[in-house]
Amino acid sequence: MFKKKEKISLEEIAAFHEEVKGADLEAVMKKYDREANTRHFEGIPKIIVRCMLIGFALFMVYMNLFVNWGEQIRRCLFLGMVILLIFTIFPRKKGSKQKVNYIPWYDWILGIAGSGSFFYYVVNFNEILQKATRIGQLEVILGIIGILVLTEACRRVTGIPIILVATGFVIYAFSSGLPLRRIIYNLFYTTTGVIGVPIGVCSTFIVLFIIFGAFLEATGISNFFIQCANSIAGASSGGPAKVAVISSALCGMVSGSSVGNTVTTGSVTIPMMKKTGYPPEFAGAVEAAASTGGQIMPPIMGAAAFLMAEMCGVEYASIIQKAILPAFLYFSGIFLMVHFKAKKLKLMGVPKDELPKFGHLVKNIYLLLPLLILVYMIIDGYTMSRSAIFATLVAIAVSMFNKEHRMTVNGFFNALESGGKGTLSVAAACGMAGIIAGVVSMTGLGQIFISGIVSIAGSNLLIALMLTMVCCIILGMGVPTTANYIIMATTCAPILITGMNMDIIAANMFVFYFGIVADITPPVALAAYAGAAIAGANPMKTAFNATMLAIAAFIIPYVFAYNQALLFIDTTPLQVVQVVITSFIGMFAIAAGMIGYMFRDLKLIIRVLCIGCGLLLIHPGAFTDVIGISAIGAIVVMQLLENKKNLKTAV
User: CA 522, 526, 527: angle at the middle one, nearest 5?
Assistant: First the structure.
């Protein structure tokens, strides 16, 4: 369809992009991202809903900066407002045709009853605290209503998978013989259930960082990232795919959704890749794999970094520091694969004179100031809440120097509205994840998990890691990033920490990675399906391609499980350099073997050898490193000699 050796202009890409827009990106978002499926309001009702979201966002800022309420009160207020907003904004059925300005009677009842259950707890907090496990019949009924309504709210904004997981855990709690009163008390009225650590982190750090992300979007920083990626890689072989990898990594730093990131950056990059000559299923897969990787990219990591710091009992800055090298290797792996694919297909890039000028980008470098300020304040010891709010104010200030995205009063309120709305799905998912964590704590289920895996694996760490990986991928399918991590940290991480004596951060990072790749692993690969919809490709083929491209995410966790130098744990600078070099060479070999091209086409036996040698390098040990480097070096020399021989023959 396209001439592979022909360079394309940005004008052609723009024209092709307009064709793809006909596919209706909004429809794609609504199909694969429940957050995009909302009711339609006009006139006065639209203003009221808008004011509710803005008021919610401002109240969260006020609550975190100026008040000193008890944790139960703060968390119940937060969840009560979240439930009321969800039943106001989100319809019962995804994709259903909605009347304008219409909220059905049952949603009024559910919204008021659900939020009322949490507000009742706030008003009667001292009395309920004194009753403890002797709560009355009214408290039990309100607890049941609150949990059931929260479950329905979560279903509307995140989908069925997490509901099924949570329901399975609650059924287990009842089957263990615990009385109803105790189950409701633990799940609804204590900080080990619905209003546990996940909601605590969400109502403080996460909500403020989502608002911060909304203001970054308003300042045009996402567009700046794409321009930077174009300037760096646009002109190289298969440049648009490399642009997709770089821009998704950068945008992923402030995005909390792999599906949202896929659709946002993919609406630009996927048409570019198709126009260049990449097959549609490969183009959609590149964007999905890169966007999913955005969830492991510091400093925000899909908001899971805040929770991980809380779960591990370490500083947030420590988590983002340890996540840097694994994220670098992940994106290096994808970048190498798209490079080898471009060379294999003899694809060209965008002409240099059509790309953004370096001088223009340098002039706009100030757009990065909010992120730099954020990281500096966190490292310097400021609280995450204050760091996020101050960085948001800096984002507003720098926007004044950007004519295209200058912050106006309307833009300010739009960003607050977007931040408030973006919090709802994360909060509902955190509430459900709290139920799962509560059941595990209440029943001792975590110890049963540990005993089961350890009895199968014995003292073999590899078997334990593989079984844990399978559990993470299954439990993580279709579950949002934040809730995904909470489930993994509650159920799977203790297997490695207690059962295998693994470092707590390494174990949490291991389960986090495998929970995240569920977004591109068939059969429930929502990010890959969203990419396929934009690319006009077969969804399952796109998902398998995305899994292949994200092979690094299946390998890197094993690297830091065996060699924690990759996470800067108990290591020296020399060991870090060694593991980075050997892992990068290993990824180079694996990428070449997976695509079937290095400096020229690879025969099947050489492809298998490349993958095998790459795995040897990724496994720590001097012996395996020597074998792997020697074999890969020999393959590289053979490839270069064959190229030289063919060049002489052609002359």
Answer: 105
